[in-house]
Design goal:
heterodimer; A: mainly alpha; Fumarate Reductase Iron-sulfur Protein, Chain B, domain 2; 2 domains; two-stranded antiparallel ribbon; 53% helix; B: alpha/beta; Rossmann fold; 4-stranded parallel beta sheet; 12 helices
Amino acid sequence: MSITDLTSMAETQLGSKKEINERLLKIIDEVADSCYQCAKCTSGCEAHKLLELEPHKIVALLKRGLIDEMVNSDIIWTCMSCFKCRERCPQNVSPVDILFTLKNLAVANGQQVPGAYTAWLQSIMTMGLLQDVQEVPLGDGKVLKREDLGLPELSKPMDAAMFQMAFAGVAMEKM
Amino acid sequence: MTKKIGLYPGCVIPTEQYGYEMSIRKIMPELGVELVDVENISCCGAPFKSINLVMQTYLSARNMAIFEMEDLDIFAPCPQCHLSLTETKQRLESSGELREKIVSRLLEEEGLEYKGALKIYHTLDLLHDLVGIDVLKGKVNKPLGWNIACHYGCHTIRYTGADRPDSAEHPMKMESIITTLGGTTSDYSEKLNCCGGPLMTTHKDSALTKAGEKLKAVQERGFDALAIVCPLGGRVLDSKQERAAGMVGEKLDLPVFYLTQLVGLSMGMEPESLGLNLNKSPVSKLI
């Protein structure tokens, strides 16, 4: 199973796309009458100043049905998921959840995802965790590892093959 | 009274942020919390919320099932894990379809049973509410005496509907712990700002700039140190402080401690036993 299979399987993800579209339609229904573009979300957005994410515009584009435009844009991957927009919206709209749904749709459509996700998926498939133990360089040229620190062995899936199969099954929505 | 609880370190803490794990393991037994290590755990799935909601839900539910089968509540010191587990628990309560798919099919195939009845703790509520301020106070024999800024981290406090360890807009539990340990603290305008950590793998420069801005603000306000409770915060605010300084063109030399390291120091524990020799920020200025 390659990572390409896991992240870009437009054909195998029909069920998943249907579920995501339903989620999106439900959100559109909810925001259509509530967001009045006060931009409080954007004023607090952690990704606004540096990465130019404007959550209130995401909501506006969604209301206009410009979903493909957003799904095809890199901007949806700049959200830091700080949840300030969800916390502070006076109308209970949640731009961060709109962005999660758009990203899910991008993946189900077979769009390229940022490289970090591919590396994480690969790592989960092989060892069940995002990364393996890292060495800590000390100032004097020495290097410490987890076992040098008196810490117990790293806990990870015991039956790697079974975990891999289950995880791949979820990834491919072939259940 | 000793409370038994399962430690769920997640991915980043046990593979990289060793000082957080070491200090947790060192202080908790002294505070009446018996930590139990659990085999067979995996990533909580938090980063995969962006990829596929079912994937995140499956991974979090799988871990919770493993703890439940050992009859343990779960202690997740990573706020991202804590949020992912909490959201999953809520999601499985409200969606019968997802519960059927994940719990009845996938987990049962692995021989796991998920009930969704366990409690989920983070460092902050474990120390402040379960251990309690009075017990903490009784253990302090080396009051800190420093002026310490508190950094909660986004997922520790947001969002309100997801049963967080402290308030989204006015969190105060960390402050109350710091003053109990003999430190002083005060509010600052940037307290609720993100450290940039979640961007580290996709937009490194922006992540380090955010970290630099946060550190600069804390340093300029005259704090002696910064306290954190999140491994992604540790990664950028402590481990990469020098590079963060470069991004904002400032000389930064702000000691950054995990709250659990500060608890240990106030109890008179050896700095090295709390992993303080692993902190990259200049903690030796103070200890």
